[in-house]
Design a protein that fits this description.
Shape: globular
Strand order of the largest sheet: 2-1-3-4
Structural class: alpha/beta
Oligomer: single chain
Number of strands: 6
Largest sheet: 4 strands, parallel
Strand content: 5-15%
Number of helices: 6
């Protein structure tokens, strides 16, 4: 797979190669607390590695797609209590991504995709999609970089729907990408079992959402079961995440909200 970094082109090359059919991908990660066993750059690594690989494969498959440098500092204030977290407040993050949209529009590209590796960015980016669309006319999209799949040995089976931060999935992915940054001797099961009795109030997919900070749950800022992580599960997640990201880019390339004309 060939690299597709827009920033490695010269200005005249951008002007010559970027058209209304071009898709620009902006990966968004984070630098934030992920417990005692994972590095601060966990979400950055997910966004950067999967985003880059997806753009390269999609380009090799014929799409006109380029990648911008991954954003490291984003909206991570749910972890602001923890040393090492570096975050932007909501207004700064919002203005940053909207102004990136302005710059992308000036290249002549027609589509901007945020490939996101940090759950705390989702709500803000969803609002930004419409703002960028309204101000600059770009087609705008948000897609995740980490897919979800049951582990080959049931690594995530005991998380009860709470494997959202530093649990089996993220730990396994970093074991696959950068095992030198993972300390499995400090990985434990940190699942707020008392919340499983609620049918409507859930992290993901429930009808009632709630505001939270990562130190709310009686855990060391982790929500999930890191003890069940494995490199094999990380490999499975990598393969699925890459396949899904590339498939998403292909759909984005042919998406037209107005339908056939």
């Amino acid at each position: 797979m060939s690299p597709r970094l827009l920033t490695e082109l010269s200005g005249p090359e951008v002007a010559a190669r970027v058209t209304a059919d071009t898709i620009i991908v902006q990966p968004t990660g984070a630098v934030e607390h992920h417990g005692p066993h994972l590095p601060l750059i966990t979400d950055f690594l997910l966004a950067d590695h999967i985003g880059s690989a997806a753009v390269s494969r999609a380009a090799d498959e014929g799409l006109d797609v380029w990648q911008l440098p991954t954003l490291a500092f984003t909206k991570s204030d749910e972890h602001s209590w923890a040393p090492g977290t570096v975050w932007l407040d909501a207004s700064t993050m919002f203005e940053t991504v909207v102004q990136i949209g302005r710059a992308v529009a000036l290249t002549g590209a027609g589509t901007l995709v945020f490939a996101n590796g940090h759950g705390g960015n989702v709500a803000l980016l969803q609002v930004a999609l419409r703002e960028i669309r309204k101000q600059y006319g770009l087609k705008t999209f948000l897609m995740p970089t980490l897919a979800r799949t049951p582990g080959p040995s049931g690594e995530d089976a005991d998380e009860r729907g709470f494997g959202i931060h530093g649990g089996a999935a993220e730990t396994s992915m970093i074991l696959h990408l950068r095992p030198d940054l993972v300390d499995m001797t400090k990985a434990e099961r940190w699942v707020p079992d008392h919340l499983a009795e609620f049918d409507r109030i859930r992290f993901n997919g429930g009808p009632v959402s709630f505001g939270w900070l990562s130190d709310d749950f009686g855990t060391p800022g982790v929500v999930g079961d890191a003890s069940r992580a494995s490199a094999a599960y990380g490999q499975a997640l990598w393969d699925l995440s890459l396949d899904e990201a590339v498939a998403s880019l292909h759909e984005i390339a042919r998406f037209d909200p107005a339908g056939p004309r």
